[in-house]
Amino acid sequence: MQGMANFKPLTQKHFTMLKWLVICIVISIIAGIFGFAGIADAAAGIAKIIFVIFIIISIIVFLAFKKIF
The pTM is what? Predict the structure, then answer.
């Protein structure tokens, strides 16, 4: 149970990458609706990259916490 003593709740700074992911997805959807294909493709590409990075970091953090508990 010592691992729980070091646990800190998530703060706003932890959600920065997820916030940028949502912003890029919204930009790509809006650009796609208005027919700006180049902007939509670029924003969707950025969102995909950020999503993959987020998943990788989440897996690393999950494995690190699994070893603590």
Answer: 0.53
